[in-house]
Amino acid sequence: MIRRFLTCFLFLNLSFAMGSTDLGDVSKSGLLKVAVDTTYPPMEFEDMKGEIIGFDVDFAKELAKRLGVKAEFIVMPWDGILAGLASKRYDVIISSMNITDDRKKVVNFVEYARMGQIFVAKKGGKVVKSKEDLNGLVVAVQKDTTSSEAVENFQKTIKIKSVKNFSAATDTFNAIKAGQAEVIVIDEPVGNYYVNLAPQTFVVTGEAIAPEPIGIAIRKSDEVLSKEIATQFKAMMKDGTYKKIYTKWFGKDPVLKM
Questions:
Q1: What's this model's pTM, rounded to 2 decimal places?
Q2: Are 214 and 5 in contact (CB under 8 A)?
Q3: Can you tell me the distance from the alpha carbon of 200 to that of 123, in angstroms, rounded to the nearest whole number?
Q4: Domain 117-209: which CATH class?
Q5: If 0-12 CB within 10 Å is exposed, 13-18 middle and 19+ buried, where does residue 248 land?
Q6: Distance CA 209, CA 128 (A)
Q7: What is the fold of 8-115+211-250?
Q8: Which long-range contacts (CB under 8 A, 24 or more apart) does 22-27 make?
Q9: Which residues, including other chains, have CB under 8 Å from residue 175's CB and lie 6 or more apart?
Q10: How far apart are CA 51 and CA 37, in angstroms?
């Protein structure tokens, strides 16, 4: 799905930069430092009061509680979020990060959700039900994401007129509204969130890619922390807490099952 994609060159550099913190340091500090990119509602975003809220935020708070600490959120731009993990600015990334083979080379993942990508268009505009319908259209995506990567792959067989890359997911919707693009390829929860906010303006027209795994990113050196997070996530799944958080934000049962 989803967020998010970075170059192999950056991954190679990060693989040599990763340091260690691990569970003992987290327990001693009393904090689980969590990186988030707050331009991604309903996963993580700021409300009118400037408070960071969202599915990932509630999930991270519950996870930290089960680790016996509190969650502290560090807001990061997406294109620097893995570098921040390498430099130990925080302990984990819980920000809708897609699990990819390249990323698995440099970080450990605990999968905690599966989400797909969808097509969103202006109401009354182009109806895109499949990637073939992108032929001749102007497509908006958030840059450095798996959505943008997917569109790059589509271009190998489909003559997309042009692709407009934006720094934030919110910018793609502004582009559609202003007539600068005709369709967005975006993560399902984010697309649905904005469509529900303005159903008179936007509409979901189809599914781009089936649900794919997203995960908590943890430094490879932090093996104990990684195992404990996996254990606590399984407990959240088993006792129904995860389902409760998921349905609060998405209004349906989780795709990911035990």
A1: 0.78
A2: no
A3: 7
A4: alpha beta
A5: exposed
A6: 13
A7: D-Maltodextrin-Binding Protein; domain 2 (3.40.190)
A8: 22/221, 22/222, 22/223, 22/224, 22/225, 23/67, 23/222, 23/224, 23/225, 23/228, 24/224, 26/67, 26/69, 26/91, 26/225, 27/67, 27/68, 27/69
A9: 140, 164, 166, 181, 184
A10: 13
pLDDT tens per residue, range 57-77: 999 999 999 999 999 999 998
Here the tokens at position 171 are 């910018």
Query: What are the boundaries of each domain within the chain?
Result: 8-115+211-250, 117-209
Query: Could you report the per-residue pLDDT of 104-144, keeping only the tens digit for each?
Result: 999 999 999 998 889 999 999 999 999 999 999 999 999 88
Residue written as token pair 């327990």 = 27
Residue 43 token pair: 């996963």
